[in-house]
Amino acid sequence: MTAVAAILAMLAAWLWTGSSSGAVRLDRLDRLKRQRTGEAARSERPLIGLSRPSRRAEAWRVASIELCQGLAAELAAGRTAGEALARAVSAVAFPDPEALRPTVAAARDGGDVPAALLAAAPERGGEGLRRLAACWRAGVTVGGGLSVLVDRVAVSLREAEAHRKDVAAQLAGARATARLLAGLPTLGLLMAAGLGMRPFDFLVGGPVGMVCLFGGLALDGCGLWWTRRLIARAERA
């Protein structure tokens, strides 16, 4: 009986500790999943509220970083510059894949790759392609190590993109505040109308009201324009 009691005690202890450790592991996995989900949401938060041209420029910047990283890896693997660029371009999902076809053709046929990169680079978001064009021209004409130059370009682009996202996240509050302040006059008019003060009759019923209406609209529009200009200047800095 003593041996049976000892075995039962050991089995109970094993079941107790095993279920507890399993619960701990499940809890740790759940916390890790929530942490990763939160990090992904924080990384995507600066993109929320951006206009369509801004999102397109962001996609071009990300694709340019991937292109430089892939090109550096292909060059480090021992491939020629033209073959490495063609393979790197084919592995990246650009917002406009057709724009890079002349670049691939120039890389395979020995054409003017920097000119093709400059022609493919959009006005907004094409900084990476323009830097890559300058780096390609320096590596080919001067004879510098193209792999090292491309790797440095990739590092600088990643740092610039991280700084841009940080600035966008900090300016998100300013954008929201500007929109809120721009809508406060309308909210005030609706509240006054709800209280029976008839503000719209005053605004459209005489010259004084019309002057107040158009003056308020002009000031509100100027405030929005000035705020957007300040935010755009901060993003370019």
From TrEMBL:
UniProt xrefs under Pfam families: T2SSF
Every Type II secretion system protein GspF domain range: 69-191
Compartments, as annotated in UniProt: Cell membrane
Name of the protein: Type II secretion system protein GspF domain-containing protein
Keywords for the protein's UniProt record, in alphabetical order: Cell membrane, Membrane, Transmembrane, Transmembrane helix
Organism of origin: Planobispora rosea
Broad class of the protein's primary localization: membrane
Membrane topology: Multi-pass membrane protein
Transmembrane segments: 176-196, 202-226
GO terms under cellular component: plasma membrane
